[in-house]
Amino acid sequence: MYSLSLSSSTVGRLPPTHLCLALRIPPPCSRYGRLSPILRSPPLLWRNPRSSPSQPFLLLPHPPRAAAGCNANNDHDRKHGVDHHHGHDHTGEFEYNGVQKAILRFAKAVGWADLADLLREHFQLCCCSMVLLLLAVACPYVLPSRAAKSVQNAFICMAFPLVGVSAALDAVLNVPAGKINIHVLMAFAAFASVFMGNSLEGALLLAMFNLAHIAEEYFTSRSNVDVKELKDSHPDFALKLEVGDDSVQQPFKLEYQKIPVHQLEVGSYILVRAGEAVPVDGEVFQGASTIINEHLTGESKPVDIKVGDAVPGGARNLEGMLIVKTTKTWENSTLNKIVQLTEEGQLNKPKLQRWLDEFSDQYSKVVIALSLVVALIGPLIFKWPFMGTSGSIYRALGLMVAASPCALAVAPLAYATAVSSCASKGILLKGGRVLDAVAACQIVAFDKTGTLTTGKLMCKAIEPIHGHWAQDNRACCNPDCEIEALAVAAAMERGTTHPIGRAVVDHSVGKVLPNVSVESFESLPGRGLSATLSGIKSGNESHQHLDASLGSVEYIASLCKSTSDSDKIKEAVKASLYGSNFVQAALTVNDKVTLFHFEDEPRPGVADVVSTLRDKGKLQLMMLTGDHETSACRVAKAVGISEVYSSLKPEDKLNHVKKSSRDTGGGLIMVGDGINDAPALAAATVGIVLAQRASATAVAVADVLLLQDNISSVPFCIAKARQTTLLVKQSVMLALSCIIFASLLSVLGTLPLWLTVLLHEGGTLLVCLNSIRALNEPTWSWREDMLSLFDGIRCMITRLVEKMRFGSNVVPSAV
């Protein structure tokens, strides 16, 4: 246990409003159901223009401004769309036209705006209004007829302002701007009911509407709870150590400076104590502990770490004290990337959501037009009266309420829920549209090295195969040719990220090798490397410079000056003493070719992943690899893939992906480690990449990022996509059924207005409940989904019965 004598200083302090925005939490003055729109916008980096150049960038949704609802000079706007938020933007009069400005100035002058802000969608006040209205409904049944009407009117007069003041201001401000949305429709129907003498029904309409939307916001928050927890889990400050010459003082003499995480630079040393989260990505410089990455990868199993191990930002230190050397800034850290990708994904809306965004206002105008047709044409054709509960105006108001697109608007909620569910499992989707694309795909193509296999190659043998022999016998001209070949290969591969390069460098560690200098260097993707070297000998002669190439056997053979030499190299590879079961790479220096043999094993659990995708997902599976056929078939047989394409260059992979995507109606999913398969990932219908290994280019072009360093979550992602599209279809059908059913009954005059509202809002809540089922474990078919639903209902009923039975068996204690 460390004992510390610490001296700390705080470099800077964020203003309260800025801090609220940086932490992505509502300001203190916000209330439930009053979510400011500034907290919903995509993040951007902002610098205070009055700050010094050294002041850090802040991750803010917008440049700081007054929080919604915190001052008396707030403007008002209400929006209902598929983002499901019903907050109110109070950002200045520049957003309104002249009529709106005049209305708003009047509302502020008489206190209407402040009162509306106080009452708007307040849960407790909505409940109070509903209780008062239920008492009003009960008055004729429990009170004498003389007093019943007066008491009922009193209850209505107390309840109506609680829900009607804000609704009236919303409608009055939206109509001059041409915003005919669901709020305008409901307000118009409610106040029209009052003028027709049905004030109780109008008040019930607004109360149930507000309560339904508060419940809707609750379900929406359920869909994003994991992302919110992820945002709130990161530390705001880091304990930066004062270190000189890469040496840390004794633990009891440590001194640190408490600074915002945005000010950390690459190479800084930070102190992470037990129970704290690692602020940014880094590697352990001193200490050993156990960390948990559940917020990042969904894996709850603790991981032991020691000196030299990489630690992602956001990982929580469970025990001990760590000194971590940062390898990334906050902007590039794993935790911040997850938050950014999740928020950017919300901008990539699925087709249904984009359609609703585009046509919601037009739909509302169509509803108003149809309601006017019912109100005006009904008496002429069907001889309906204009007024009364059976009149055309009453029927038109019912149609206006029933046909409102509330339930249809919340149908895409399943997309946000599924994205959140995937994020909790360490799967980052770049938008809901990816779910539609994944669900439609019929083929999954896998890269081999690093995807189906561990990617941790081990060099098993180095074999001279061409140009090393004396003319009269098979004795090698240079007995140290294998050592020299390893020295050349290690010099060429040093600094590369390819698995073969890492294996060569690892194999050279601890061996006495001749000095080799690389004068020039060129990387040829999908082929290999070429370089100009100095400091090596060829036979007994010392050369100033030699050209060397390292890569696939096909690439090295293609460099030969004659066809006969190329054929000899290929024959020598086939006749290799080590067979063709290993991954092979060839090195040529001064027309001498050396063959490197590497062993690569399939990842644990890959066979189960493949069988799940083939048997449950009914997907066509294939392997695309640059390795030779024998090695590729060995791995494919071990994991259960029958369709193998080997010896592929990057352009060959690209062509295979394009052809397969074109030949199948649904499309193709490409799964790779992101090292040299970025073109194929970009060309695929959906690209899935292992984020820990992938290059920046692969991360940019991929549609799905797997934070865990394995492909075990691929079946979950595909099953979740199919489940989500099924839930969205169910929600759309349910919403349309409620709208059509309630609209027909309202026009026929068989539904009173309050029951129309109840059916309308009930349908909206059912759609919400159906959408959050995307948080459950995914299923592969609608039959499994229905069985899962019925099992859940049965378990819920069983629990309720058991609770009731247990409660009835409780014997009251004696007094």
From TrEMBL:
| Chief subcellular location | membrane
Q: Where in the cell is it found?
A: Membrane
Q: Which keywords belong to this entry?
A: ATP-binding, Magnesium, Membrane, Metal-binding, Nucleotide-binding, Translocase, Transmembrane, Transmembrane helix
Q: Write out the transmembrane intervals.
A: 122-143, 155-173, 185-212, 363-382, 394-415, 732-755
Q: Which residues form the signal peptide?
A: none
**Please, which domain of life does this record's source organism belong to?**
Eukaryota
Gene Ontology cellular component terms for the protein in this record = membrane
Q: What is this protein called?
A: P-type ATPase A domain-containing protein
Organism lineage string: Eukaryota, Viridiplantae, Streptophyta, Embryophyta, Tracheophyta
Q: Is-annotated flag, keyword Hydrolase?
A: no
Record domain P-type ATPase A: where: 255-343
